[in-house]
Amino acid sequence: MEENYVREEKIIDKTENEKNQELVMSILKVKKELEEANKNYEYAEKDLIDYYSYQIKANCSKMDYLLKLAKQKGIVIDMIEQIRIKYNEAI
Fold this sequence. Notes:
Elements: H1 16-42, H2 47-73, H3 79-90
């Protein structure tokens, strides 16, 4: 009985710059999710009110953690510049 072995490739660690970019992207993603949860909460009825309030609380906690991590790494996120970039893309 012959066995075939698959050669494993070495996992390449991400550079610090890639990790920082990923952190910023995570912050932006959570910000968007938080905005969506807030909008949905405004129109929620009955049991969905609890669901969206928990979702808002969870996203706020996640955002606090990510911003704390970014601050420790010395990453500055300019939300105003981000809005300008989005506005220019829409034009």
